[in-house]
């Protein structure tokens, strides 16, 4: 399964920044992550009792390591504030750069309201937890294992790719790298092969996100000697015992995930967040397509825009419609037809012709003849 | 006698947080961390048993710490060390190596003198623990 493509991840796990300034932003992101950790450490060292303990021992080290130790001694040493004392939420939020992260999420992703709402809730919880901890109230780490379900092309993989970076910026994960695996990376081929293989993957993912795409392939009910079950058991145990080290995200189509969870009830109950990715509406699809075109420096002419809206409306009713991925494919075909038209015309082209996609390019699509665009060509 | 080998050997034993900070340092430089153990800590025995494979691609020190603890649990009466291998061209060697686990009782080494031809002396080190068979060298307390 490839990304639905409304966001193109340029390199590795970096957050894509389609706007200018892509070079500068990773630095700020790192500073945000460290700043969060350093904030905890500073809160602790302000109290003389705590400054000698683990916080001092780890002081020269990266904040990621000193964080938990410092926070632990902080909650022990800090006296409770009285119930009426006031904490400035806004300032806290600013110091963690939470609103910046959430705004970016809103700007980069069209639609996906339930997903964004859940991310906001998680961010709020992490913020409140931090405050509670600082004032000596108990705060247990929430379990953030997630399951993404939804139709093809609704952004499951893309959101998962951003979740690691997001959770790191929120101070929940230490490294935030995304390790994306499928069945063959976890399940071995002979007896005794599965456990080391799964553990190896889990170790690589620690501190970040383990993304298991099409997780239902792990479990093959038709073969009772399948090693997938062993892999699931190790996963379950690790998800429970290393909740603070790793976030596991399962993704797949809703109906098959349901079957998977029915046969593995332990898995369903260990996953706190079941996020359903809704299909995109027509407006959202047009907006996504617009973003893609803009990123690739193409432009639809006014009449092509009308034609494209008609195209999307038709395509949505046809079989094998894959939301944003279909938009990506449609744009790729538009580019093909535009290139074909320009080359066939010959002669010289203006720069504007290279950028502009005409209505004829759109109308040439098979969709207008009632054939699904992604059907195998007959 | 406390065994002093590798980096930080003059310092008190590290806490887990300090070990993790050192591993983080290695990871930040792109070195592959590995865990090794032995019950034959002769200074010339440089190749210890490997606990699993070197952890290429591990991004989080907590993952390496899992292996350190697993090794210490499995071999409580052995020496355990963390090594970090720098694979960059021109170095390609162990860049950092420090002891993270040691037996409760360390009897130490004696100096053996051997007189050879023409009254020349040869010297060698002999670990007291090495008199016992491998696997039970450090498990009992003071003999």
Q: Please outline the major beta sheet of chain B.
A: 4 strands, antiparallel
Order of helices and strands of chain B: HEEHEEEE
Main β sheet profile of chain A: 5 strands, parallel
**Count of DSSP E strands of chain B?**
6
Strand order of the largest sheet of chain B: 2-1-3-4
Q: Cα-atom Rg of chain B, whole angstroms?
A: 17 Å
Roughly how much helix do the residues of chain A carry, as a percent range? 40-55%
Low-confidence stretches of chain B: none
Shape category of chain A: globular
Strand content of chain A: 5-15%
- List unreliable stretches of 5+ residues of chain A: 1-78
> How many strands of chain A?
7
Q: Structural class of chain A, please?
A: alpha/beta
- Element pattern of chain A in H and E: HHHHHHEHEHHEHEHHEHEHHHEH
Note the gap between the termini of chain B.
Answer: 14 Å
Shape of chain B: globular
Query: Averaged pLDDT of chain B, please?
Result: 92
Could you tell me how far the N terminus lies from the C terminus of chain A, measured between alpha carbons in angstroms? 24 Å
How would you explain this protein's 3D organization?
The complex is a heterodimer of chains A (378) and B (143). Chain A has 378 residues and is an alpha/beta fold. Chain A is built from 17 helices and seven strands. Chain A has helices at 24-45, 54-57, 63-77, 89-96, 98-108, 113-134, 156-169, 183-186, 194-205, 228-241, 254-263, 265-270, 282-295, 302-317, 323-345, 351-355, 359-363; strands spanning 146-150, 178-181, 209-213, 247-252, 273-277, 299-300, 356-357. In chain A, the strands form two sheets. A five-stranded parallel beta sheet of chain A has the order 2-3-4-1-5, sandwiched between helices. Chain A has a two-stranded parallel sheet with strand order 6-7. In chain A, strand 3, helix 10 (228-241) and strand 4 (247-252) form a beta-alpha-beta unit. The longest helix of chain A has 23 residues, at 323-345. Chain A is globular, with a radius of gyration of 24 Å. The two termini of chain A are 24 Å apart. With 143 residues, chain B is of the alpha+beta class. Chain B is 19% helix and 31% strand. In chain B, the strands form two sheets. Chain B has a four-stranded antiparallel beta sheet. Chain B has a two-stranded antiparallel sheet with strand order 5-6. In chain B, a hairpin with a 5-residue loop joins strand 5 (109-115) and strand 6. The longest helix of chain B has 14 residues, at 61-74. The interface between A and B is medium-sized, with 21 and 19 residues.
